[in-house]
UniProtKB/TrEMBL annotation:
CDD domains: Cas3''_I, DEXHc_cas3. InterPro entries: Cas3-like_dom, CRISPR-assoc_Cas3_HD, DEAD/DEAH_box_helicase_dom, HD/PDEase_dom, HD_domain, Helicase_ATP-bd, Helicase_Cas3_CRISPR-ass_core, P-loop_NTPase. Residues 33-202 form the HD Cas3-type domain. Keywords: Antiviral defense, ATP-binding, Helicase, Hydrolase, Nucleotide-binding. NCBIfam families: cas3_core (TIGR01587), cas3_HD (TIGR01596). It comes from candidate division WOR-3 bacterium. GO terms for biological process: defense response to virus. Gene3D superfamilies: Hypothetical protein af1432 (1.10.3210.10), P-loop containing nucleotide triphosphate hydrolases (3.40.50.300). This is CRISPR-associated helicase Cas3.
Amino acid sequence: MVTYADTPRRHGTPAAWRCCLPSGFLAHGSSRDGSRTDTVADHLRSVAERAAEYAKAFGADGEARLAGLLHDIGKYGELFQMRLLGQAEHVDHWSAGAWLALQQFRHAGLAAALAVQGHHIGLQRIDKAALVGLKPTRWNSAMHDQWQLSEPDAGVLMRRFRDDALDLVPPNVSLYNPDEKKVAAMMDVRMLFSALVDADFIETEAHFKAIDSEKRYRDPGPTLDPVRALEQLFSYITRLTSESKGAAVVNQLRADILRACLEAADGPQGQYTLTAPTGSGKTLAMLAFALEHAAKHELRRVVMVIPYLNIIDQTAEVFRDVLQPVFGPEYVLEHHSLVGTRGEDDVRDASEDRQRELSENWDAPVIVTTSVQMLESLFANRPSACRKLHRLARSVILFDEVQTLRTDLAVPTLAALARLVERYGATVVFATASQPAFDHLGEHVKKWCSCGWQPSEIVPRELDLSIRARRTKVEWPDFDVPIEWEELADRLAGEDCVQVLCVVNLKRHALLLFQRLRERLSTDEGLFHVSTSMCPAHRRKVIEEVRQRLASNQCCRLVATQCVEAGVDLDFPMAFRAWGPLESIAQVAGRCNRNGRFQLGSVHVFIPRDDKYPSGDYRQAASVARQLFVTRGGQLDLDDPTLFQDYYRQLYAFARPEDRNQPLSEAIQLQDFVKVAELYRLIPDVAVNILVPYDDRAYQELCERVRRDGISLDWIRAARPHTIGVYRPKHDAPIRRWLEPVTVAAARPTEDWFVYLKREHYDYKTGLNPPGSMECLIG
């Protein structure tokens, strides 16, 4: 390996390496067609101006320009130039720029320094010792994973920088304030980092795609036209209403909620909640709010955040139905990933897929994404996960089914979103039928972001939703009289349960009840099972068949887990629900008489003899619901919003979310970006993804492709509908015998992706049932 001592003279007469390069100091190798070279000076100027353009939306253009000018200044070093010739490796070209930002501008250069340092290796830590370690005279390769500086004398780099007619202008003000609350301060650094890394990606890509020495930029995504989009939405809603089979009272309720959203959209930017019953048209009403609000405040995009993968396709399809006929296929971007924000820097595609391009930095006016993709990005440190964040400035961010937010992540999450509102001109809306009392966490949120969390409710009380939305009668259980699965199966098989939904807490409960019910009916006709043991394509097919049978008044019995509760549009006349968290019971009630076709739907809550729950948080919420049930005399009114306020107050008092996840809180306090990214996980690392043999043809094609080419983002997108998640099995678990690890480059196996090899273990009714390994099934 070439080291400093081996390099030619660093200044003075031209060094020998310069004779081998076309035009002095180069930022990259030649473009793919060989027609263009990219000098360091040209690259720094281009990235600086683009980063400034991106950061202008939140008033940080000067600081972003500074970061852009410094991010690759280390490429003026001989060792980096030799790396371009293949004569050196493991060369650090980013730390010099980070050190110069600190040296030249001290605290005012701190955010730029962190962004420059992280543009290849990810954001690190705001720590004096770590930052002083960037100083070239203190450089120790052993402390920097054996990376060696491209040039140990920062003064040499600055002279070459100025020789190219470049100069540094101090920013008027820095985004980063060391006295700011920690979540807010870290968000400020990430936003600057986002503008820098996205600009760097775009400019580098344009260089390598050059044709005849001219950079070739990707086409920008369309811009939001909220007025025309709103007109399209109104036309769509009018058509839906004219075709609706729902009761007049339900249609009027939906119209009133839409009107309330439009009126609230005329208000100031800020934090909002939308509390409305299931089946009340929240999804389209939220979109109407966003478009009207964007038109009034000249906002740039709408981001719809959805908790579950099984809902995102449904919502994205609705948004495309509304907007695509006028604006084309690039107007609505659907972005999700089974691995959240993990691994995105390591998995690359050779394809130049337009959808992938737009997903990389959310360059679209309407985004539909998952909670995992959105929220983990707010706490990420990797360039690929963070590069889209600058697009959130001056956006409307809508969260559906927000009750699914993990309690132990609630306080830092609210703080990060509050900062987007406070500093970056975003508006955030939390929508659900069972609104969590997050405002009661407001003082705890202020520990991390000074503005706290105090949202305004969109729907006025005078609409009396709790009375008008009453479409079910709930039969509550006697906790002293639990029911056996056999007895429940007998009841569900009765003639009065021809169309019935039954939701239980665990996959094994759903499987057991389905089997007992199958035995009693002696047929599979009209009998269905839905759980996450089934891949999304399988679940989607079953749910569509269930809808068709309900619409045609055919026999339809569905046994399911919680995966049908949030966002799945079903309308049964009767529903059963095992005792669980109060919001889960309410969600099942929302799948009963959803469209008001009956005078009252019938909801039966029961206590199974095997009264087990999926996780500690879920079990805790079920326990709080039980306490509330007892204190209210054994009767609960699911349509009373004060019920959920009491429930969440008690849950937060019991669960103490502000004290949960101490390791994450400590990492935030230390402003350790690496550790925070590791610890902020909506889906724990214990989960792995398994390609299952549901659709033989798709399974065969995906197996052949990944065995031949290895894993890629394109392959993950294609595999997603045919994949299930399970807990990472122990090394001696029987399921290990039937798992083939998916490989990446150089045939290295991944730790998170597998192919399931035993086709006979995947049942056409119940999904994957690995013998002897049911404990690894999530939920």
